[in-house]
Each structure stands twice: as structure tokens, then as C-alpha cells.
Amino acid sequence: MFCLPGPALRSRPSRWRVNPLVTIRWYLCRMPSRSQRLTAFARELRSNPTRAEAILWWTLRGSALGVRFRRQEPIGPYIADFACWPHRLVVEIDGPTHYEPGRQEYDRRRDAWFAAHGWKVIRVTDDDVWSYREGVVDLILQHIS
Length: 145
What we know:
The structure is a single chain. With 145 residues, this protein is an alpha+beta fold. The protein has two domains: 1-31, no CATH class; 34-144, VSR Endonuclease (Endonuclease, Chain A, 3-Layer(aba) Sandwich), CATH 3.40.960.10. Helices cover 46% and strands 17% of the residues. The protein contains six helices and four strands, in the order H-H-H-E-E-E-H-E-H-H. It has helices at 20-30, 34-47, 51-60, 103-116, 126-131, 133-144; strands at residues 70-75, 78-84, 89-94, 120-125. It has a four-stranded mixed β-sheet, sandwiched between helices. Helix 4 (103-116) links the parallel strand 3 and strand 4 (120-125). The longest helix is centred in the N-terminal third of the chain and has 14 residues, at 34-47. The radius of gyration is 21 Å and the shape is globular.
């Protein structure tokens, strides 16, 4: 939608009537889109990784496994912890918040969306990353091969 500053922006005496549709149109044109908000949130997540994400990223970064992974990557309406685009693989690290009521249903819907769009999802716990990092890397390598 092409947006021009409408009459709501110009200063005018208070006796002039403001068209609410013009004001709403102006406001909606200046709101960031969903993808812009998602990208900004992904940047924020990248700058504040959890301990498990930082440990796994240190192993995956820089094509260490022969493929490139992206961290906190927006894919559709979701943000994947780690994504490998050539193999359409998403690696999710589940921390304590993933066991809260309602969160598991959200994770199921999210996994179903990824599967419907051709992505494979690997879910590992943060305890697995801390204690068995090599096993997690082997699991990722099995899905890549």
C-alpha cells in the first residue's frame, strides 16, 4: 500500500475534523511488518543466546560439519534455533520453558508447520547439549547424510 502523509499529519486548528480512516491508514503504514518484527526479534535472540545455544553454535558455526547453519533464523512465522537451508533441517534446543503447560502443544503445531513446508525438525534438550555434545552432533550428521 502506498502511503502519503494525510491530513492527520498537518497541523490544523482543533475545529477541523480529523478523518479517522486517514489516521488509521497513516498508523498502519508506519507499523513494522510481521517479517520486520520477526527479524528484529531474531536479532535480539542472537545477541542473547542461552548457554546450550552458545555451546552448540560453537560446534556448528563456520561450516564445521561441511554445511552452513544459521542461528536464530526466521522461517515462515517461526524462528528456528538453528537451520540448515540446503538440507531443510531445523535443530531446536528445548530448555525448561518447553515443559510448561501449553508450550508442548505450541511446539507440536510448530513442528507440524515445518513438516508441512518440507523441513525436518530435530529436538534436543539443553541437558543433552551440555552433557553429550558429541552425540547431538552425531545426530545432526545422521540427518544431513
